[in-house]
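pipeline stage [seq->struct] | target=Transcriptional regulator, DeoR family | organism=Paraburkholderia atlantica | residues=306
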Amino acid sequence: MYPLLRRAEILRIAQSQGTTSIAQLAEALAVSDETIRRTVKPLIEEGLLIKVHGGVMLPSHLEESPFRRRMHEHRAEKEIVAQQICELVQDGDSLILDSGTTCTHIAQALRSRSRLTVITNSAAIASLLAQHNGNRVFMAGGELCADDAAALGEPVLAYIRQFHVKYAIVSVTAVDRAGRFMDAQPWDVEFTRAAFGQARRRVVVAVHAKFEHSALVRAMNADEIDVLVTDAPLDAHYAQIFAAARVEVRYPGSAAAPMTVALAEGTEGPGEAAHRSPPRGLSDATCHASTDSIADDAHGEPHHAR
């Protein structure tokens, strides 16, 4: 590739992904890390790129909010995950959807569905899906985070515990080597656990960039979810972990996992026993009384959206 074409391609990748690393650019352009460093150096000097920890980014991204920047990061992978969720969720289904950037991409994809019942703590997601294709959207209220317009706090947890839904769909900060799902903030974990308690199927979404990393708080182990949705096949290590936990793993081209067959035959997955279908004539998202205690939540700290 000619140097001018290489420069243009680097700028295009930076535009689409937000922040990109030297290694990612080298792989995408099939050149060495050193070639990428030589190419980006004049781009930085000309003010077309900014050097950040571990890579480079466009100057325009500094003017965006952190949430909007994260919406650009790994955008293609997040859109793949969103399409997988759109194939899982059918017209008329009910779901709890959390506030991460991956879930916001999911909400955009779900605009092709109709008659959904959606419970969320995200103002952005509520805005995308409300008054659209006959959807019903319930917005959990609480302290609003300035970064991503997500509601936090005990009122949010109490609110979502009123509902019984088919799917709880959440994102995470990281998936560590042991297959544990990790989050950066305790209140993200509290939301996830509350949502999973009200769903027949517990779904985690995570692009491949989240794997092989860790974060501050453990949200759940592999055997505490029903479905993992990602953008590409898992490597042998992770595939073995989630197969042993009987987790259905969905990615483009994936075949139906044994759990899918079991559910179709009427048996219950790990998340089914405590939340059976409501009686005939009641909505899948019918409100019900709850005596669950409300977990303590953190206040006054910046929210780390996923």
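stage status: PASS
auto-comment: The radius of gyration is 20 Å. Residues 3-17 form the longest helix (15 residues).
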